[in-house]
Amino acid sequence: MVSPEQMREHFMLDPEVIFLNHGSFGATPRVVFETYQNWQRQLEHQPVKFLGREVSNYLKEAREALGTYLNVPANDLIYVPNATFGVNIVARSLNLKEGDEVLTCDQEYGACNNAWTFLSQKKGFSYLKAALPTPVESNEAIIEALWEKVNERTKVIYLSHITSPTALILPIKEICHRARREGILTLIDGAHAPGQLELDLSDIAPDFYTGNCHKWLCSPKGAGFLYSRNDCQDLIEPLVVSWGWTREPRHSAGSIYLDNFNWTGTNDPAGYLSVPSAIAFQAEHDWQSHRQACHKRLSETLEAIEQLTGQKTFYPIGSSFYRQLAIAALPDLDDPETFKNVLYDKYRIEIPVTQHLGRNYVRISVQAYTSSSDLEALVNALAELLA
């Protein structure tokens, strides 16, 4: 396994910036970005041939590579711009009505909370948030806190695989299996999971799972996916009705699900078509070893910040509740936004300063290119600013 400094050479990141915010938008290796540009050039070389006669086969090959990676049939996958888009597809498709309940937790991503809240106000169903125990101690406690809110009106459980504000890995497999036994649909937002966790969607068995490829899998921006279990696909409707819409399977391997989403008008599919290159890049560079090394460096950093601030960590240090993304608690700040800007303007550290349930945190991303010296620079900057 090569060093973080050597891995940094594969990326186009500004060498003057300590980049500890991979979790927001990701970063793409040079070779994957070149693949992306090659697809764009091919499209521009003969647009009608590419979009009119070839792109369906290219997308099929890209779905097959992703399906192998996720261990699900390729025809159960569609490409979407991002996980929030996938959440909107499912949320808008489901026939929820007054008296129904959608259950989530208090650590969900704001944009997707907005989507569910908007639809609940429009359709009349309830969008409920279970308070998860903090600090985190066990998966059993998480599941129990969630199921305290489950009742006969619960139609959908919507959760992130890795939460955005707290970077907590939820016990998604256990939740999906229990919900299936109780007749409750599950929608999982895996925005941060592909590339950071080993994913076997057939084993997890969600009804719907949407994820980003442009974050931890390192594909170009605007590449995500939606997996829909085969016997749930008739529930899904396209957000945009266009030429692909059909009542009978027409083009895509006998699948109305694929037809409805494969062709929604003129679009640049280069990001989707580059996903196999991102998967190959990580396979070629022993990404499992990098993930383990990143987790170790992140754990050491959490411990150092805890000793510096006296603020207890959100999860046990070194545990499986986080992987390459984690939050470290900070003391009370007068202005978190100004604090974040000072970290960047003075120390050239790109990192988000967040708030959750009234507490301040830095959310630290450790990717294969993140060195120990990068993380030491963060600890030293925090020591100066908090002194």
Overall spatial form: globular
Let me know the CATH homologous superfamily of the largest domain.
Answer: Type I PLP-dependent aspartate aminotransferase-like (Major domain)
Measure the end-to-end span.
Answer: 38 Å
Which radius of gyration do the C-alpha atoms yield? 21 Å
Mean pLDDT: 95
- What do we call the CATH topology of the largest domain? Aspartate Aminotransferase, domain 2
Main β sheet profile: 7 strands, mixed
Order of helices and strands: HEHHHEHEHEHEHEHEEHHHHEHEEEH
Strand order of the largest sheet: 2-8-7-6-5-3-4
SS element count, helices: 15
Share of helix, binned: 40-55%
What is the level-2 CATH architecture name of the largest domain? 3-Layer(aba) Sandwich
Uncertain ranges: none
Keywords:
Aspartate Aminotransferase, domain 2, alpha/beta, 7-stranded mixed sheet, 3-stranded antiparallel sheet, 387 residues
